């Protein structure tokens, strides 16, 4: 672990203790924002990667527009709500674990994004 450390990782997972409440209270993203990001990145049918997907607010906005997304979510509580919220989108896959430990397995992606989770990623990795 880098200087970022275990305490930072633990803080990044605190929302999972109240994942349902978090999901109900946190507003989503504007459809126009997701459309603009996808138009700019132009994934062209390739899968995007979302770091710290949480309960899927940004994921759902992108998936509703046809994007395939690999969601990386370290908190089991948040990942459970994320799976439920994205269950109707066959192009969405959830990886339960941190970005720091995730390995793409030789796959290539056109878009990597973090809606509001960038600060939870180890500064060396981001």
Characteristics of this structure?
globular, Rossmann fold, 126 residues, 5 helices, 4-stranded parallel beta sheet, alpha/beta
Number of structural domains: 1
CATH top level is Alpha Beta
Per CATH, which architecture? Answer: 3-Layer(aba) Sandwich
Query: What is the CATH topology classification name?
Result: Rossmann fold
Gross morphology is globular
Number of helices: 5
User: What is the N-to-C order of secondary-structure elements (H for helix, E for strand)?
Assistant: HHHEHEHEE
- Percent range for helical residues? 25-40%
Full CATH superfamily name:
Vaccinia Virus protein VP39
Topology diagram in text:
Blueprint: H1 5-12, H2 19-25, H3 31-41, E1 48-51, H4 57-63, E2 69-73, H5 76-85, E3 92-96, E4 111-113
Parallel strand pairs: 1-2, 1-4, 2-3
Description:
It is a single chain. The chain is of the alpha/beta class. Helices cover 34% and strands 13% of the residues. The two termini are 14 Å apart. The longest helix has 11 residues, at 31-41. Helix 4 (57-63) links the parallel strand 1 (48-51) and strand 2. The radius of gyration is 14 Å and the shape is globular.
Short overview:
The protein has 126 residues and is of the alpha/beta class. It is 34% helix and 13% strand.
